[in-house]
Amino acid sequence: MRPFQYLQPATLADVIVAQREAPSAVPATFLAGGTTLIDLMKLGVMQPERVVDLRLAGSDFAQIRFDGATLRLGAFARMAEVADHPVVAASFPVIAQSLSLAASPQLRNMATLGGNVLQRTRCAYFRDPTWAACNKRTPGSGCAAVDGANRQHAVLGTSSQCIATYHGDFAQALMALDASVVLGGPAGTRTIPFAALHRLPGNTPHVETTLHPGEIILDFVIPAGPWASRSLYLKIRDRQSYEYAVASAAVAVAMNGDVVADARIALGGLAAVPWRAHEAEAILRDAVLDEATATRAAEASFAAAVPQSHNAFKIALGRDTLVRALLQAASMEVRHD
Amino acid sequence: MTDTLFPAATGTMGQPERRYEAREKVTGSAAYASDVKLARTAHAYLVTSSIGRGRLQSFDLTAARALPGVIDILTHETIGDEIRQTPSIYGGGYMADTLRPLGSAEIAHWGQPVAMVVAETYEAAREAANLVVVSYAAEVAPVAGMGSSVATGQALDPMGFAVGDFDTAYRTANVTVDANYTTPAQHQNPMELFATQCVWEAGRLTVHEPSQYVNNVKFGLAAQLGLDPSRIRVISTYVGGAFGAKGFLTHRTALVAVAARRIGRPVKLVPTRAQGFTVSGYRAETRHHVQLAATQDGRLTALRHEGWEVTSRADTVAMGAVSMTARLYACPNITARVNVVAADRSTPGFMRAPGEMPYAFAMETALDELAHKLQMDPVALRRVNDTQTEPVGGLPYTSRSLMLCFDTAAAAFGWQGRPSEPATMRDGDWQVGWGCATAFYPTHAGNSAARVRLSADGRVHVESAGHELGQGMYTMMAQVAAEELGVPIAQVTVALGDTDLPPAVVAGGSSSTASVAPAIMAACDAIRRRLGIATGVPADVMPAMEASGLGTIEEFTEVRAHGTAPDSLRGLYRGMALPAGGVHLPDRVQFALGAQFVEVRVHRRTREIRVPRVIGAFAAGRIINPRTAHGQLVGGMIWGIGSALHEHSEIDTRNASYINANLADYLVPVNADVADVQAIMVEEEDRLVNRAGVKGVGEIGVVGVAAAISNAIFHATGIRVRDLPIRIEHLM
Ligand SMILES: Cc1cc2nc3c(=O)[nH]c(=O)nc-3n(C[C@H](O)[C@H](O)[C@H](O)COP(=O)(O)OP(=O)(O)OC[C@H]3O[C@@H](n4cnc5c(N)ncnc54)[C@H](O)[C@@H]3O)c2cc1C
Ligand code: SF4
């Protein structure tokens, strides 16, 4: 671990001051739960010069609030608190499940929602700096994964420059529920759709988000809707717990009898960024949700999939995961109140 | 102990006594090697090779040396020849491999230590290690493993054998099976890392290191450093899991000892989890070709098992367990062969059930394939071929309760009525399957010594340099002494894991209890003899002790195990007490045996594999402590689940590196993967194996589970998977 400057401002205003007074032009790196950042610092993958610990300043943004129309989740709420929150579990099951199926209890007690959506890929070549070729770590250096072990890599949204998977689970729930994200920074506060937060790798896989320098995630805003209560997160993996998804699906469906009034779908473990499956949604809308439609919808989601040498099975598995999730959602007992 | 069929014993032995060191472990006061606090300790950090084959060209140590707190940096250029070249255990020495630590510029494998930084703090040492710039010359691509190079494997003729005429029998048989199987590289990953602390005081070296063989470390280090062994003490009071990884001397120990001598301070090294993948040996990947032939009623007429194992270029290491798979069932025509494929990898070694796990996976899956072809129940197939005489040399089993295990486990499992056709059982969206396999483990014992002291107040103290790896050695040795001398177990204290104690066998090959218990029994005999009491049977010695008027009686005894060479007791005092037995005896074969039954579920769409039930019944001679034995057997069976579905050290062939060398990506079963796992201990008395009648339970639980799972997956889905680990993509 390289020596670095460590600051723990007491308020968000102090965070902005601390950044303005920074001795170097390099923007500060924020620390929340630290379960991604400290890990990558120890591996020498992230080498920040200044770490700004947000845990004090962010404590105002750790609440869970539901006013009947929108759910607001503070970016500094811990994964465990949100997963266990009764309102979240009852009215937004996909959120609770995406969090409780992630990582381990110890990690969920440490990790924050803001840090969670910004977690970095588990690509083995990204995590080990002795591999010279990694465009995400060292722009222009190449990609060691293309000819390497890439079973866990993505089949959707990749580029010739980077085939890494975005592994987070919670982000899929946010994608499916059309969440937006409130950001605060030196230039004030702004709100953007969550879907606009992550950037496809393209030719710049090292630029992962649309955050402006110094911007902090403050809140996630999730609109309630008839689909939210009929929602679930299905996570498929090699062992039953404490593993990233090999494939996952976040689905939220509003039903009108047997017919789909509205469907929202995101796919995890399969794509370079949190991945909304709009094609599948279009096929499902106004259709009877049965095995045949679910299969057609799932096939449409993977029409543009590109397999790598070790992960071709993920296309079929992704399809099957989505079909299973949709049929499970259709058969959910949902309370109407 | 609700799942224990073992009858309540009358003496102290056989009771589920509570763990001797339970309080220390639960409260955290048990000091493992890295917990030992030494004044003025300096901290070391390894730099390891990032290439798989080549040479070190140069080091740039400028930045590392300039870092505040850095004290010393060892490389092959700076260390001089303080460490001598010594042979590996395969060449009659002590080392886990034959490479000399920091011995030259040659890179034999990825992860090879190339430098060690010593600094005031762990953080400074790690940072300096990151600042060491290593230049390599890597002209030739490494051979990463077996690849498709099986054809170039080298046959190990002494491990092969044949009886009868396999070719003719196979050619003319009614029913045959011919299949290939593979198992991956796997690493033991004990919770406790490979810590080492060394301190020199007045020319004497003390080493704190988790070890399965403290005397191997002592005598090996003496040879490496050119020291009189009497000046070295190795202490390993507790070991946080070993599983074969801590059996023999690795490079790190001499490096830490040399560093501590150079700087005149204690030095502590705790290699990282990732570095642990190449610190010690591991289970190398294997390939198997099995051919079976049988009559229509299932009697085996021909059996051929050929194995290939990856080894390093420096050492030829092969587990070669065809010696066991070929001896399990009656069969007149047998051929067995073992080959190695040399790769640019670190030297493989021992991992819990080293050869038994992979070779059993191949043979026991092949038998299931045969049962299916014969339309025969897999248990019935084992029954038809059961034997009390091994078929290769015609030697008797000392005892063999295999079918009793099968019948006991089958009844507990509810095997009867299992549909023979695959893919016929369903529970909602889950396909359900049942499979079984034989578990076996050779019974070993090695030479050991013990000292027992009886005091007039009824206290007993037992000493032996055996090892507590978590298996319950302290507890069991206390039980043995308590029963032999007729004192309450609470009055017995035990000291283990220290070279100052009477020497004992390596804690390997499931031999610890079978080796050290007889030594304690012999010492108790000596005490009884001093008191004029009949030897050979447990007795309450206290009345005679009181009558004698003696304050204490202390007796030291050494015991030579059956099958060891007559002059092998000398090896006991030179760190060379290795287990003997199993299939390597002139007069008999010795095995613990068992039967594993599993239920699997495979989701009909997404193909995840779940294992809701595992039931094993084991006959392993005398069970000294059903509580600790239960822990060993259930733990072994959970390892078996991991060996079938999870554990896989993934190799990037470009530099022959492990790319999942961390516990997030190297999967082992977690609690959620382990549902109902039951171990049944079948009563078995075997007075031949050793005086304690103990066969050992440390490893047998692993054996057979992978085959039982693959057989159950076939039963659930109709898909036969012959490659481990079995994963989602195999069933799509
Ligand atoms: C072994 C292991 C297994 C895991 N398994 C899973 C899994 O199955 N599923 C899953 O989804 N995740 C998994 N994770 C990832 C884990 O959920 C994330 O590490 C965690 O959520 C990150 O949150 P944190 O608060 O610790 O973030 P930190 O490590 O503190 O920060 C992560 C990144 O986000 C930035 N950051 C943090 N908060 C903010 C903010 N408010 N505004 C702007 N930037 C911010 C930091 O600068 C940093 O770059 C696993 C992690 C580990 C170590
Ligand atoms: S896939 Fe992306 S993260 Fe992985 S090595 Fe290639 S560029 Fe780096």
Sum up the structure in keywords.
heterodimer; A: 337 residues; alpha+beta; Uridine Diphospho-n-acetylenolpyruvylglucosamine Reductase, domain 2; Uridine Diphospho-n-acetylenolpyruvylglucosamine Reductase, domain 3; 2 domains; five-stranded antiparallel sheet; four-stranded antiparallel sheet; 13 helices; 20% strand; globular; B: 732 residues; Aldehyde Oxidoreductase, domain 4; 3 domains; seven-stranded mixed sheet; six-stranded mixed sheet; disordered N terminus; binds flavin-adenine dinucleotide; binds iron/sulfur cluster
Describe this protein's structure.
The complex is a heterodimer of chains A (337) and B (732). Chain A is α+β, with helices and mostly antiparallel strands. Chain A is 29% helix and 20% strand. In chain A, helix 11 packs antiparallel against helix 12 (291-301) and helix 12 (291-301) packs across helix 13 (313-330). Chain A is globular. Chain A has 13 helices and twelve strands. The N and C termini of chain A lie far apart (54 Å). Chain A folds into two domains: 5-57, Uridine Diphospho-n-acetylenolpyruvylglucosamine Reductase, domain 2 (2-Layer Sandwich), CATH 3.30.43.10; 62-118 and 166-330, Uridine Diphospho-n-acetylenolpyruvylglucosamine Reductase, domain 3 (2-Layer Sandwich). In chain A, strand 10 and strand 11 (259-268) form a beta hairpin. In chain A, the strands form three sheets. Chain A has a five-stranded antiparallel sheet with strand order 4-5-8-6-7, with no helix packed on it. In chain A, strands 9-10-11-12 form a four-stranded antiparallel sheet. In chain A, strands 1-3-2 form a three-stranded parallel sheet, with no helix packed on it. Chain B is of the alpha+beta class. Chain B folds into three domains: 1-8 and 355-443 and 582-732, 2-Layer Sandwich (Aldehyde Oxidoreductase, domain 4), CATH 3.30.365; 33-140 and 192-279, Aldehyde Oxidoreductase, domain 4, CATH 3.30.365.10; 445-580, Aldehyde oxidase/xanthine dehydrogenase, molybdopterin binding domain (Aldehyde Oxidoreductase, domain 4, 2-Layer Sandwich). In chain B, helix 8 links the parallel strand 15 (300-312) and strand 16. Mean pLDDT of chain B is 96; it is low at 1-9. In chain B, the strands form seven sheets. In chain B, strands 3-5-1-13-10-11-12 form a seven-stranded mixed sheet. In chain B, strands 7, 8, 9, 14, 15 and 16 form a six-stranded mixed sheet that branches. A five-stranded mixed sheet of chain B has the order 17-18-25-26-29. Chain B is globular. Chain B has 17 helices and 29 strands. The chains are: A alpha+beta (337), B alpha+beta (732). The A-B interface holds A 1-3, 44, 122, 124-125, 128, 130, 147-149, 236-243, 246-247, 313, 316-317, 320-321, 323-324 and B 50, 123, 126-127, 130, 429, 603, 605-608, 610, 645-646, 650-652, 654, 659-660, 664-665, 667, 669-673, 725, 727-729, 732. Bound molecules: flavin-adenine dinucleotide (FAD) and iron/sulfur cluster (SF4). The site of flavin-adenine dinucleotide has 30 residues of chain A, from strand 2, helix 2, helix 6, helix 7 and strand 8. Chain A: Keywords: FAD, Flavoprotein. Chain A: One of its GO terms (molecular function) is oxidoreductase activity. Chain A: Residues 1-227 form the FAD-binding PCMH-type domain.
